[in-house]
Amino acid sequence: MSHALDVHPLKSRIGDFIAGLKTLEKEPITSARVVEYMTQVQPSVVALTPYLLWNREHYARNLIYRDDFFEVIALCWLPGQRTPIHSHDGQLGWVTVLQGELVCRNYRFVRPGLSRKPISPAKYGSSSGRPVEVEPLNSMNCQADGSVAVVDRRQTTHQIENLEKSPLGSVSLHVYSKPIDSCVLFDEATRCCERRQLQYYSAFGVLLQPPPQPDQQLAETAA
After folding, report:
1. Which of the listed residues 93, 114, 135, 208 has the most CB atoms within 10 Å of its CB?
2. d(CA 181, CA 26)
3. pTM check: above 0.70
4. Contact 60/54 with Cβ under 8 angstroms?
């Protein structure tokens, strides 16, 4: 596949990365095309510096770019920070770790009781407070090695946690198609599934005011 921009990954500016993504919009967006592009062209942590805002209370979702087809977010993780178990509404997602190390644990929602049949997150719609159980499937460690992990329509329920103990934290770059405004998440305290609106900690390098409150942490989920 040819790209409009011939940029070495280590020297890529975020503007170059976004411009390359937009060239993909001229044809049907497929996971294979996005994986190939992101594997070849990745902005460095230095290039993302203006968008890397950190939060001591919970990981930070920093919006870099958004249009009708793509959403690009930089997530900043301090040691031990993690998402709730959550879905992606059946949308496609791609993530690459630019600094540190993350673990992604995949799950599926199942009905409580003896049947334990898998449940599609889409069935929850906008309702909340439905009891559910989660069944672990597998996990994978993601390091800053240039690889790209995919969230597809078949497996969209997972949890991401920062394994990096360094105070420098971890940084991951997430691309979604299409943008995701809400998700279904699993509340470990109530053992219920609920739909929540997603929140950005910053947008285009500017901290959003007021910043998310502690009771909004569960609504801050990743790709």
Report:
1. 93
2. 24
3. yes
4. yes
